[in-house]
Structures
1.
Amino acid sequence: MSNVEQDPRELVCAAGEPVRELVTGHQVALGGPRAMTVTRTLPAVGRRMVGAWCFVDHYGPETTAMSVPPHPHTGLQTVTWLVSGEVVHRDSLGSLQLVRPGQLNLMTAGRGISHSERSPEMELHGVQLWVALPDHARQVPPGFEHHADLPVARGASYEATVLMGAFDGVRSPAGAYTPLVGAEVSVDGLAELPLAPGFEHAVLTLTGSLTVDETALPVGPLLYLGQGRSSVPVSGRGRLLLIGGEPFEEQIVMWWNFVGRSHEEIEAFRKEWSEGALFGTVADGDPLPAPALPTARLKPRGRVR
């Protein structure tokens, strides 16, 4: 179950101590009056990050149209991965890219970028993830990568497409700034997935019926597995998303579409989006206005709340 305490204590997991923590997430509407609905499992009440992964939205399968107008990002990478459907990405660098299932769109915001995502009405099913950039890399120039052919790792009863980082000795060509892993794993039967003991990991079922480390994991919740595991048993038939990485020890501020380090920095990003030229322009309709800042000051927080 999720942690619904109003005043939760910090969860401290000792290195090397595997855990099984189910994060149920919450429903979020994206894109205005005819918004599509996503299930957001990161950030959650008790857990904000898994490695450098700081945001996980899962949507579909649903017949809908994606219509996310131009909006800004800083201090992060966006990862678009589809199970079905297709999405058109446009950004302020001039990129125009259609992404389909089995292909990766990776956008590095760095010091600032803007983009839009659109699709006609069709069956859409996929995930949108963010990776927080470490302090030494968060001012890098913005960039965009599209990878149509990703490497695949194969083992007994599983096949894993490696989106980012490395899994089972197979490395993705996608750019990353911290040690991490992102993979879509197809399982048919009983599989033992190899893991890096120094990483913390989490899994999300995308399709089918799967049991992970004796925990039934339906489509929807995220199962946090902690650190210290060299492998995890998975049984059943379906596809899951595996994310992980070295614990991200820097404190960050996440607000709207920005990742920063202080209230003042987020305030400056918002002002720049509303009035300046830092984020460039995207020729795809009216940009999304920034919401009002909260009345309370935004505070840097660690990977657990």
2.
Amino acid sequence: MTIIESAVEINLPIEKVYAFLSDLNNYQELMPENIYNWSSTTNEASFTIQNMAKLAIKISSRIENQEIIALPTEKPPFDIELKWTVTANENGSTTAKHIISADLNMMMKMLAAGPLQKLVDYQTQKLKEILG
């Protein structure tokens, strides 16, 4: 299993960061330009990644003010789990960590690990920009 992660500190209480991340409608704001055909509800989202694939995800579990896990609803090219964890810091801010776990063979790892790392880094930075 390949684990790709990125963390960011946000100057908001954990409840606000969790509330934003627990609604998939908000994720469109976290996506780079190569994502299009976006469609979402609170619990599900589908989109197309330019030159790659169409993906549909659904929140499979929520632990309030701790974590949100989303899994593909259709069979993806490889097994993948998208997870956000939130942790309260002593100064009143929140650390949000985006973790992608993907079952990649060696060839897929060479092709996908870089773009997936760019995606999680982009999404954590966008989260910080949006929530300040």
3.
Amino acid sequence: MRKLWILFLSIILIACSPSEEELVSAGITEMDNQSWEQAIEYFDRALEQNSSNSTALNAKGVAMFQLGKIEEAIPVFTASIQADSISYKPWFNRGNANLELGNFKAAISDFNLANGLDPSQTDIYYNRGLALLGLEEYEDALLDFDAALQVDPNQALAHFNRAKALLGNNDPISAIEALTVSLNLDPDNGAAYYLLGVTRMSALNQREEGCADLKMALSLGISEAQSWLDDFCE
């Protein structure tokens, strides 16, 4: 009788074990709560049932990225791509990982493929613009930042990074305009004040305005502004 009970209990446990889909769903819920390690545990359990579950692989890579395990996340995104090469998501996420690591050419390649699969995802334009900026390909970076701003012109960081590309393209007047727009949208961006102050002083010799911007940058935690203030401002 005991052997029969153990067998019956085993059947119940097997029947009640969560499915692959349920494990993925539970992992995504943990991600919504920013419980990244717990999410990875659920995704790993789902992958034990199906090692080619592209959703679990992609989501696991995102959770690893959020934990700062960026290099380790790249092969996980690659596995997700191999499982489902027509989804833009793992291409985009692997591009973000490469961007974070400074692998700009690899990031651009990933973003290009993501963009080809779903051109409506405007985040791709902005992130590819950052990678192009990293390679000092300023004109192409401007095209991507402009594309992102056409969809949503109220992106302060897009205006800020567009200003960097304009400066790289030797257009300080337009860069100052872009920085002004960025600061109107986000007045707490100390880096934008710093870049604005330095540009005013070095490109246009606007010392009074530049010093005011640098003082704002310093007040917002940009310590590099101090040396400019010491050297050029009363």
